[in-house]
Amino acid sequence: SKAEQRGLTIIPIKVYLERGYAKVEIGIARGKKLYDKREAIANRDLERERRREEARKVAAVLGMRLIEDVYNPVLWMAITRKFRHEPEKGRRCDICYAIRLERTARMATCLGFDGFATIMSLSPWKKAPVLNRIGKMFGRRYGVEFLAADFKKKDGFRKSVALSKELKLYRQDYCGCLYSRRNNKGTPDEQKKADS
């Protein structure tokens, strides 16, 4: 077809059923070229490594051991793909919380820890009640206590920003997942730069 010849993809957007007929509203999109995909993967990996280095820096400042999990983007994408169009704080985020908190609870149990927690509740983009409910559920399942908290409270987010500046830490402007990065418009200056 002409769509294939030009590298276009036809995407069904809506289906209408009327008097025994189905009408399909379609969209046409151009997929990424192979070099674009490679660049996106390289950027994703660079971003992840940058955040990991900052976590290592904070752990060193606090005199704490950092336990790093294996990164598995294929599993994460397979589980969250269905919810990729959800807004921030939507069901996709709940699934992501569950993936991370289950792995943390399992690791805490394997290492003989008394409890575990998450710093995710510090972010204004994260739902502390949902994080706490999921954390408690996995704590019960793996026999390890979950420290329920909302670290945003008592000016926690503002304090974290000040500490980041003091330690000269990189702070990303999105939650960290591929979908929120894609939806993030950035600052007005970043938008102008991207448009030019």
Fill in the keyword field for this structure.
196 residues, alpha+beta, two-stranded antiparallel sheet, two-stranded parallel sheet, 52% helix, globular, disordered C terminus
Provide a quick synopsis of the model.
The protein is α+β, with helices and mostly antiparallel strands and 196 residues long.
Structural overview:
- The chain has helices spanning 2-5, 34-62, 73-80, 91-110, 128-142, 156-167, 178-183, 188-195, and strands at 8-18, 21-30, 115-116, 145-146.
- By secondary structure, it is α+β, with helices and mostly antiparallel strands.
- The strands form two sheets. Strands 1-2 form a two-stranded antiparallel sheet.
- The longest helix is centred in the N-terminal third of the chain and has 29 residues, at 34-62.
- The radius of gyration is 21 Å and the shape is globular.
Helix content: 40-55%
Q: Strand pairing plus helix content: what structural class?
A: alpha+beta
Global mean pLDDT = 81
- Record the strand order, biggest sheet: 1-2
What sequence of helices (H) and strands (E) makes up the elements? HEEHHHEHEHHH
Tally of individual helices: 8
General shape = globular
Radius of gyration: 21 Å
Strand segment tally = 4
Sequence stretches where pLDDT stays below 50 over 5 or more residues: 186-196
Distance between the termini: 34 Å
Biggest sheet details: 2 strands, antiparallel
The fraction of residues in strands falls at: 5-15%
